[in-house]
Amino acid sequence: MKTLKKVILGLLILFAGILIGGRIMIDMVKKARVGYYMTSMRGSSKIETLIKAINTKYVDHVDVDSIIDRALPVILEELDPHSAYYPAQETQDSNDELHGSFSGIGIQFSVQEDTIRVNSVIHGGPSEKVGLLAGDRIITVDDSVFAGKGMSSNDIVKSLKGPKGTTVKVGIMRSGEPELIDFEIVRGDIPVKSVDAAYMITPETGYIMINKFGENTYIEMMTGLAYLSSKGMKKLIIDLRGNTGGYLGAAIQMANEFLPKNDLIVYTEGVHSETSRTFATGRGFYQNIPMVVMIDESSASAAEILTGAMQDNDRATIVGRRSFGKGLVQEPIDFEDGSSIRLTIARYYTPSGRCIQKPYGESDEDYAMDILKRYEHGEFFNADSIRQNESDAFTTKGGRTVYGGGGITPDIFVASDTTGYSEYYATVMRKNLVNRFSFKFVDDNRQELSAIGSVDDFENWLDRKQVLEQFYRFAADNGVARDWTLSAPARKQMRTAVYCNVIYDAMDMEQYLDFLNRTDPTVLKAIEVLDGE
User: Which of 200, 412, 448, 497 has the most CB atoms within 10 Å of its CB?
Assistant: First the structure.
């Protein structure tokens, strides 16, 4: 009964917050021209009376804020899987990701052997300006020792991030230096990239990987496409695997670049919002370039909007595995303390009319475990295992049949490659030995590595160094004996894992993806599709 009372109180206060907030807009739909709507409800005087009564008459002191914080998640769980409450810090972190920048010192780090190790220094950031280098160890922060067991990444981030213009002092241990080196770093804006890579994957085919849909994603994509065009791009692969979505408006802007005038991109509907349809303007620069869009089970939300627009308009071939299945639009509603809720206010529909939101409502656990169930059912390995709802069929612009009701099924299925899996691989990855070896190897060879320019040269150099053999010895020294019975695919997977990590630590994400994509079955299939057009 006590819990129920708290939930009811929280619900009333939540509704009051929505009422006070009044005018709210769909996620980035001002840019998408979807418009505004007003939220209203009856009984507000009762809510105000109840809150006033609790504050002025209740027998005991009540921490209303604490009750609300506990009650809101329970309330929102009753709605749908994607309406949620976020405390202030989580709200800030989420906004930083999608707004395209945050304030900090500009490094990527990992914690190894209870020490903060600088993996890379962001170009143009505050740390680079004062002279921090990849391979440095951060020992002190603001004169307090920041090494030892029990450190969490969250604690480290909280110490290094902070308001723009503030100063943090770090003590650095650097190879070859006998004493700590002190740096005072003035925090500044650090860009959060949406485009991980944009390079020519074949002499005629450009490849671009997009990891989210934020405020700057469209601009980043156009910059990447302009670069690829300057390199002679005649075909394009867009990689949306692992992209969990973001702003609806960003997806609409991006789809507009590839579609002819008056092609429908997406439409949204909700009980309290009018149906809104968004069409291509016909001003896109890449309306005729042959395209493949790659997706997987982690591609969701805005990633599915872009994919659905390409598939339903028969504009691109979709390659990979069935997408996540999120067809709900959330509106952020912010509270004065910095916390927020993300309230589902509409469903989006692809141009053919399908809502690809997978079923929910029976069980939160079933919804959360959907991807695992797909795996167990065999869907990752066999296209025939995909459970299509035959009664939920739609037709693309060119007359092909597509299905709604649970993600976007690709035009060409590519199975998850598990031929290289081994118990040895699982063990060294679980013990983080590949990452630890990579950092140490790069740290010991930075001067020599700095002279290597291309991924091809890097791979040849790693071969000459017999890096895989070095890793096997490192793993054995750390308690994992070498498995001499590994199959050829298993040895290939170990080589890929070790080389990829070394390349990432020594170079950057783009070079890492360049190397990884050379043996990626989905990428190879995408290239094959475009070569056949």
Answer: 497
